[in-house]
Specification:
5 helices, alpha+beta, 16 strands
């Protein structure tokens, strides 16, 4: 005959078994959540790596199509390998792609060329981009119980390059001047330091672009031939512009804010009431980072900085006040005593790219502006 005491011990044993099974299930659920989360993170990191790797190789192709005939597969491979290592992914493969119209829809589509990056020859004729495959491996938590110690996420991406429409108004020739402003609105902080905002510049609106003090992030004056420079060279480049550049890339900015140079102001005044081209920047750095982004420990703090230009803008210049004596015009409550006035007409350098067709010397419709775009 069972006693109440015996029943209590039996019930207690059953409860312990249920609790133990519940704990196992709970631990298993937590393990699954962690493993799934780690796999999702690895997939995200691998995709970011694929995007960056394809982009890096395609930038080299862009520079080649824009006229640098010294570049070959060697430089493409170096860019791809270096970027994969920098972002911490394993490079599984990279292949050249064309960018051709679909036979049915006419829309441009990337087409694999069957030529691997690293084959050692010239950049293949017709190549407009790179298809990259990368992977990221991580250790498992719960899956180790069944012998699976690690999982790998593999992703791919395709980037292409090609000409984009010039932002210069049709029928006009716009000079590229050695001055840059942020791709978003910039103001001064009352202490004459530049503050970059997240507000987009308004197209076709009359604007005051303040020249704040000499701090990184403000309007910058570009040295096309570092380490040379100075106000005299800057003025000459503005009076007689003959430089072209390819984007995206990093460029050396010798000074920010107000140059306080009569020669620079005089040369800029030659372009009053005309459209000019200026690069827009989205990042600054205390060193030349070669590839973006800038290492956090090398953030720019003042003069002699590197600026990252992702795009151009056409700017219609209406006023030049750079000698620090025009607070009545330039100060909109932010402490600026110098500024440029005008309006943005258009921008180019990012966005949808077109099929590259080798330029005909007699055909002036081919754009000199190239962009890199992720298409898959």
């Amino acid at each position: 005959m069972s006693t109440p005491h015996g029943r209590r011990r039996s019930e207690l044993g059953q409860t312990l078994v249920i609790v133990a099974l519940g704990m196992v299930a709970l631990v298993a659920m937590v393990g699954v959540v962690i493993d799934v989360g780690m796999q999702w993170a690895a997939n995200r990191d691998s995709q970011n790596g694929s995007d960056a790797t394809a982009h890096a190789g395609t930038v080299v192709i862009m520079e080649y199509l824009a006229g640098d005939s010294t570049l070959s597969d060697v430089q493409v491979e170096a860019a791809v390998v270096a970027m994969a290592a920098e972002v911490g992914v394993d490079l599984e493969g990279a292949e050249y792609v064309q960018y051709l119209p679909d036979a049915d829809t006419g829309e441009l589509e990337p087409v694999l060329m069957g030529i691997d990056v690293g084959y050692g020859g010239p950049i293949p004729a017709g190549a407009q981009g790179i298809a990259a495959i990368t992977s990221r491996t991580h250790e498992t938590l719960l899956a180790k119980v069944v012998g699976v110690t690690e999982l790998t996420a593999t992703t791919d991406a395709i980037a292409v390059t090609g000409p984009v429409p010039t932002p210069c108004p049709q029928g006009l020739t716009c000079p590229l001047l050695p001055v840059t402003v942020s791709n978003t609105q910039v103001t001064c902080d009352g202490q004459n330091k530049a503050v970059v905002t997240e507000l987009e510049w308004d197209l076709e609106s009359d604007l005051i672009v303040p020249l704040c003090g000499n701090f990184a992030g403000g309007v910058g004056w570009i040295d096309w031939t570092p380490p040379a420079g100075g106000d005299s060279e800057l003025a000459e480049e503005i009076c007689n512009p003959d430089t072209s550049i390819t984007l995206p890339d990093w460029f050396f900015v010798t000074a920010t804010g107000n140059t306080n140079s009569a020669g620079v102001e005089t040369c800029l005044e030659e372009w009053l009431n005309k459209p000019i081209l200026i690069p827009l920047f989205d990042d600054t750095c205390g060193i030349d980072p070669i590839d973006d982004p800038c290492p956090e420990e090398e953030a720019a703090t003042g003069q002699q900085s590197w600026y990252h230009f992702p795009t151009y803008a056409a700017f219609y210049l209406t006023g030049v006040y750079i000698q620090g004596m025009d607070a009545a015009i330039c100060d909109t409550g932010n402490g600026a005593t110098s500024c440029l006035t005008g309006r943005f007409i258009d921008t180019a350098g990012t966005g949808t790219v077109g099929q590259y067709i080798p330029p005909d010397p007699d055909d002036q419709t081919i754009s000199d502006f190239f962009a890199v775009q992720l298409v898959r």
